[in-house]
Specification:
Largest sheet: 9 strands, mixed
Shape: globular
Helix content: 25-40%
Oligomer: single chain
Order of helices and strands: EHEHHEEHEHEEHHEHE
Bound molecules: uridine-5'-diphosphate
Strand content: 15-25%
CATH architecture: 3-Layer(aba) Sandwich
Number of strands: 9
Radius of gyration: 17 Å
Length: 242
């Protein structure tokens, strides 16, 4: 039996790219299933989990804008991409017997509930995994910011950022051999050293609301539960101890 969770309620942010598996684009169902299993394990130990999934595996507003599209339209397309990912994740989780609700920041009531904060809180209290789709619903934002915003609104104890590596490194560990992993950082360290963890508005929001950001690898089996119980490899970003 794994140890008790350190965080009762947590928001997990995964980028769209994490769902691609070995593909160059789109959704790899096996990979989505693998991440869904990680989430199921977390609910099995009694954590209340909500999710924000990016859309970069399908469409990114900035790349559309770079090719001449109006930025706001391109961003709306990016937000729609996150809805597809949310539905894929909902499907995987429900196949595993996990109760879920998708709530979209852009109303599309045929496929998802509209985002209503108090309703989302209620779903979480009932043990449902809430998947927040369509980011913040506003162009010129990212799903990182949506993750920090929803984590704040839900009163989460932690914002878990599942990435390709097991924490924040001094340099890209895939490229620099002696890059070192930080155990702990402050929000200010991340902002001042421009460490590429999440975008600056997400870091600022987490800092203002005192929500620790835990950066860990979403690709290690059992990694999510390990970090939730304080046993995993990760970097913890929080305010400096008083
Ligand atoms: N997006 C947006 N507002 C939001 C969240 C996302 O406009 O609140 C758009 C933006 O174009 C972004 C795309 O949706 O590029 C996909 O999200 P993101 O790039 O954050 O996904 P990730 O990099 O995490 O896969």
């Amino acid at each position: 039996m794994p140890s008790k969770p350190l965080y009762k309620r947590a928001l997990l942010k995964v980028s769209g790219e994490a769902l691609m598996g070995n593909q160059q684009y789109g959704i790899d169902v096996e990979t989505v299933d693998r991440i869904a299993r990680e989430i199921k394990q977390a609910t099995d130990i009694g954590c209340e989990i909500c999710l924000v999934i990016g859309g970069g595996n399908i469409f990114r507003g900035l790349s559309g804008a770079a090719k001449g599209m109006e930025r706001a339209s391109a961003d709306y397309m990016g937000m729609l991409a996150t809805v597809m990912n949310a539905l894929a994740m909902q499907n995987s989780l429900e196949r595993m017997g996990v109760q879920t609700r998708v709530m979209s920041a852009i109303p599309m009531t045929t496929i998802a509930e509209p985002y209503i904060r108090r309703r989302a809180v209620r779903h979480m209290e009932k043990g449902r995994v809430v998947i927040f789709a369509a980011g913040t619903g506003n162009p010129f934002f990212t799903t990182d910011t949506a993750a920090a915003l929803r984590a704040t609104e839900m009163g989460c104890d932690a914002l878990m950022k599942g990435t390709q590596v097991d924490g924040v490194y001094s340099a890209d560990p895939h490229k620099v051999k002696d890059a070192t992993r930080y155990e702990r950082l402050t929000y200010m360290d991340v902002l001042a050293r421009d460490l590429q963890v999440m975008d600056t508005s997400a870091i600022a929001l987490a800092r203002e609301n005192n929500i620790p950001i835990i950066v860990f690898s979403i690709h290690d089996d059992g990694g999510f539960v390990n970090v939730l119980t304080g046993n995993g490899r990760c970097t913890i970003i929080e305010n400096a101890a008083a």
